[in-house]
Amino acid sequence: MTETHPLTPARARRGLRDYAGLMLRGVAMGASDIVPGVSGGTMALILGIYEELIDSIREIGRRRFLLALFSADLGTAFRVLNWPFLVAVAAGILTAFLTLAHGLEWLLIHQPVLLWSFFFGLVLASVFTVAGRIPRWTPPLALALGLGAVGAFVIVGLVPATTPNSYAFLFVSGALAICAMIQPGISGAFILVLLGKYQYVLGALTSGDIASLFFVAAGAGIGIITFAQIVGYFFKRFHDLTLALLTGLMLGSLRKIWPWKVDLAWLTAPDGSFALDSAGERIVTLQRNVLPELTVNGAFNVEIVLALGLALAGLGVVLLLERFATMREAA
Fold first, then answer.
1. How far apart are CA 46 and CA 152, in angstroms?
2. DSSP letter string, 155-190
């Protein structure tokens, strides 16, 4: 079932305003990656840059770029690589990490229901808008969506494992985490928690463990280039099927970002104490989704109204972005 959709549109000549827009999309991706359970890849898909992002990363691992790079032909290397696009998006992601991390972390600790509600509406609306980009649904496409949804639903509900701290496993952890980071529906931070390496990598950052960080970064570098080759291939050969699978992953990830949860278990350090994140909070490893309580201390739970409003706001943001993108394509 080969399809002939191009992986990305022709690279038009972009101006300063276009690159500013790409940077803002990068900010949205970075903000999503900060929140465990929300993927920057989901945001890239919503904002219409996912396929170009995959294609641009894919070029880094291809023969013509590597030959130009290793022969020190930097002019050819820069012409081959879509570097202005990558720089703009990367700058936006970095800006989000530097400016929004503390604020989002505070919201996760003090107002988790409201933050999750916004992202729940965002991702739920994205499921419908991305699914709408498939012109004709067929049984194989519906099956791909179902498999993606079930796969993501199971993965986000797994309990983190106890794993070794060897350099080889750190390399693998970095590769898997970065793949998840650009994969719609699954968070890279969550994959590190699942592999039992979130606290270890966090400790390596704070203690300056250069060797451990090197192997994690090396795995991430190899992983993202390799993953881009695979996704790019499937987008070229099976565009609608791949899009259906990615839509399913977003649908299944809604289990992780349901706003109302009960904590059941926490990550522990080797000495038996609770492992803490960068804000000094316990790292939750197992939760159960619950329905919100209608009353609190005998009064109506106003948080439900606020949560519903933020979910609708997230839904509205996606619909507005989709409408804006449609208008630009028609212009």
1. 18
2. HTTPPPPP----HHHHHHHHHHHHHHHTSTTS-HHH
Residue with token string 């999503």: 32
Per-residue pLDDT reduced to its tens digit, 146-186: 999 999 899 888 877 778 889 999 999 999 888 877 777 77
Find residue 262's DSSP bridge partners.
Answer: 288
Rounded Cα distance between 148 and 150, Å, is: 6
What integer is the mean pLDDT of 212-238?
90
Structure tokens at 39: 């993927």
**Nearest CA among 242, 247, 329, 248 for reference residue 3:** 242
**Crossing angle between the packed helical segments 112-131 and 302-330, to the nearest 10 degrees:** 30
Compute the distance between CA of residue 50 and CA of residue 29 in angstroms, rounded to an integer: 11
Residue 29 to residue 17: CA distance in whole angstroms: 19
Kindly indicate the confidence band of residue 5, based on its pLDDT and cuts at 50, 70 and 90: very low
Pull the structure tokens for residue 38: 């929300």
Please give the model's pTM, rounded to 2 decimal places.
0.75
The count of other CB atoms within 10 Å of the CB of residue 102 is 12
Smallest Cα–Cα separation from 49: which of 98, 71, 82? 82
